[in-house]
Amino acid sequence: MKKSLIVNISQLATVQNTTSPITGDYAKKLAIYSDVKLEISDGKFSRIILNDEKIDLAEYNEIIDAEHQCVLPGLVDSHTHCVFPAYRDDEFDLRLKGATYLEILENGGGILASSDKLSKTSADQLLTDLIKRLDTMISYGTTCVEIKSGYGLSFDNEIKMLEVIREANKKHIIDIVPTFMGAHAIPGNFKGNTKGYISEIKRMIDEVSEKKLAVFNDIFCEKGVFSVDESREILEYGKSKGLLPKIHADEIVPLGASELACEVGAISAEHLLATTDKSIEMLSEYGVIANLLPVTALFLMKEPARARKFIESNCAVAISSDCNPGSSMTESMQLVIAIACLNMKLTIEEAIVAATFNAACAIDKQQVLGSIEPGKQADCIIIRGDNYRILPYHIGMNNVSGVVKKGNYLRIPSLVTIN
Ligand code: NIG
Ligand code: FE
């Protein structure tokens, strides 16, 4: 048995003793220790040991020195589109000059531009690029990431994307949770024939389910994309094939996607920039997790989601990066936490809960990860500072000095030393 011990921890902060998403009085749910060591056995947390307890260091194969820094659970990024063929910095520039996201979509840019390029990009190239992004993510403290397809928009290319995600999951130490999102846009060859594309999506779902290529089925329920009725049809079909529903809801227009999330029993509804008070109450009542994307709102220069309203309504809030070339080009969950605090007015404790435990709940992983508790997978981060406040405070920088992934310690260098 491999045993490791993390010593010289200035502070350890984590959610504890819950298996369901945290709602309401968030901050009180963060347990904070200032006098402990952390024991890991065979890739799992085994004990939080008080410093005055006698232990035999010779029992351990590895001693990890936290150097009087703070230890937190690994960050969980529960919403990304990080398999893509190229940046879209040209659109970013156009948007800065006044073009809207919908105008760009309507002119064949946006998702369709990525889809066109993706069809001409080999699986090998997509995998190489994805692995680089996963390296960046883990070095910024993300230890588990959800990744959606949705730039394929044809049978072959959607399956290609999901196979790339599966390969990356085998090759990379980061954990990946795959989501099918064939319903991300209507491809050009089905313009004016949404019914035809829905039939095609159902054929894709059959294959995805047969080959077990995804856990979730997500959809862009939005004006000009998929209507509520079309979304219901696709999500119900996915459910009948074992795929759990998720919804991109109320990003631009409140069409009724949040209500649909409740109706179909979605695990989470994402974006929620335009959600009405009534829908927020309903999401709370049905236990649908509100997965908010603070960097996306900033990147699209929009008002952020009303996170305080969600929390006051006892709705569980997760936050994630939405990493994609169109509306949020970042791999950094540290930036997401900072913007969640600054623009959505989450407290630091609420943001940490939203980026760890509640994020794990949003991808149905809360039994295995999302908190530092005996029996859970040993995923944690060591941050450059003696307390967790540093994470959003030292904004835009990489505050992670070490990552422990399934018990394996990765040191993240801060400086290039020239001798
Ligand atoms: O979550 N809203 C739809 N999908 C993505 C954007 C993808 C893109 O622009 O390429 C999102 O923001
Ligand atoms: Fe998204």
Description:
- This protein has 419 residues and is α/β, with parallel strands linked by helices.
- It has two domains: 3-73 and 371-411, Urease, subunit C, domain 1 (Roll); 76-361, Alpha-Beta Barrel (TIM Barrel), CATH 3.20.20.
- The protein is built from 15 helices and 16 strands.
- It has helices at 89-96, 101-106, 110-119, 123-139, 155-171, 194-210, 228-240, 257-264, 277-286, 294-299, 307-312, 333-344, 348-355, 357-362, 390-393; strands spanning 3-15, 30-33, 36-41, 44-50, 62-73, 75-77, 142-148, 175-183, 216-219, 244-249, 268-271, 289-292, 317-319, 380-383, 400-405, 408-411.
- The strands form two sheets. Strands 1, 2, 3, 4, 5, 14, 15 and 16 form an eight-stranded mixed beta sheet that branches.
- α5 (155-171) runs parallel beside α6 (194-210), α6 packs parallel to α7 (228-240) and α8 packs parallel to α9.
- The longest helix is centred in the N-terminal third of the chain and has 17 residues, at 123-139.
- It is globular.
- The two termini are 39 Å apart.
- 53% of the residues are buried.
- The model has no long low-confidence stretch (mean pLDDT 96).
- The chain binds N-(iminomethyl)-L-glutamic acid and fe (iii) ion.
- N-(iminomethyl)-L-glutamic acid binds at residues 81, 110-111, 114, 220, 248, 251, 296, 322, 324-327.
Short description:
With 419 residues, this protein is α/β, with parallel strands linked by helices. The chain is built from 15 helices and 16 strands.
